[in-house]
Amino acid sequence: MQTPIVYPHVSVDCVVFGFDGIHLHVLLLKRTGKEGETSFNDLKLPGSLIFSEEDLDEAAQRVMGELFAKNILYLHQFKSFGSPSRTSNPRDIGWLENAVQQKIGRIITVSYLSLIRIDDKMKLKSDNVQAVWTALPDIKKLAFDHVSIIHEAVDEVRRFVSMDATLVFNLLPKKFTAAQMRVLFEELYGEKMDVRNFHKKMSRMDYVMPLDEFEQGVSHRAARFYKFDKKTYTKSHTGF
Fold it and tell me: Using an 8 Å Cβ cutoff, are 238 and 201 in contact?
């Protein structure tokens, strides 16, 4: 029996979620290259083959450190992807071989996710970084199997939120409206929620504190702002 060829390539891919008040977004990198004589421009998740001296967590932090001026405090490793079809697309394998200047065989990738607040403090390290926040509904086709990785990441976030709803406050502004919170849950679960029922559930969250502040300069009735009170929150609280 012929001994199978082993390709020891391991990578990390990072799914970074943000929320702009309307849609859940994923941070994607622009990718350019050539497929034969044809140039292409498309998108991919932030990722990299790991260096020989790195462990997986270090590689994921390096990828994020190359993008953001501020450290991503938490990256959660959630799943590995190792289908042989990951590198079956000639465009993907050709682009990667050109980028690393070596022959690439089968690649196992270990995926991480992070939930961050999109604000002025979370800036990209350089204006030259070709990164874009892309609304989840607009993501149709990406490099490799990155669409599947994002779908798995969404499922993982849903599992987390079902156990601990306070994770959504990593995505919401520090001061948010009830509508913003509801829309975020609708984005996460992919379905519309009854406004009254949502407000009832929200009112039972004693760690969601109403503020004496309201929206300014809006054409509709000004909504009240709320905040997440960490001091009130205890580990005994469960999911939404």
Answer: no
The total number of residues written for the chain in this structure: 240
- Interacting residues of 7 by C-beta distance below 8 A, sequence separation 6+: 104, 105, 106, 107
Tell which CATH classification among 3.90.79.10, 1.10.1740.10, 3.50.50.60, 3.30.70.270 matches the domain 9-163: 3.90.79.10
Q: Cα separations (Å) of 41 from 33, 98, 117, 159, 203?
A: 7, 15, 28, 34, 47
Distance CA 13, CA 60 (A): 7
Q: Give the C-alpha separation, 2 to 26, whole Å.
A: 43
Q: Any idea where the domains of the chain sit in the sequence? A: 9-163, 173-228
pTM of the model: 0.88
CATH class of 173-228: mainly alpha
Per-residue pLDDT of the chain (240 residues; tens, 9 = 90+): 565 555 568 999 999 999 998 899 999 999 987 777 777 888 999 999 998 889 999 999 999 988 887 776 689 999 999 998 888 888 888 888 888 888 887 899 999 999 988 875 566 766 666 888 999 999 999 999 999 999 999 999 999 988 888 889 999 999 999 999 999 999 999 899 999 999 998 988 888 999 999 988 777 888 899 999 887 776 555 555
CB atoms within 10 A of CB 151: 14
> For residues 125 and 27, is the Cβ–Cβ distance under 8 A?
no
Amino acid at 105: G
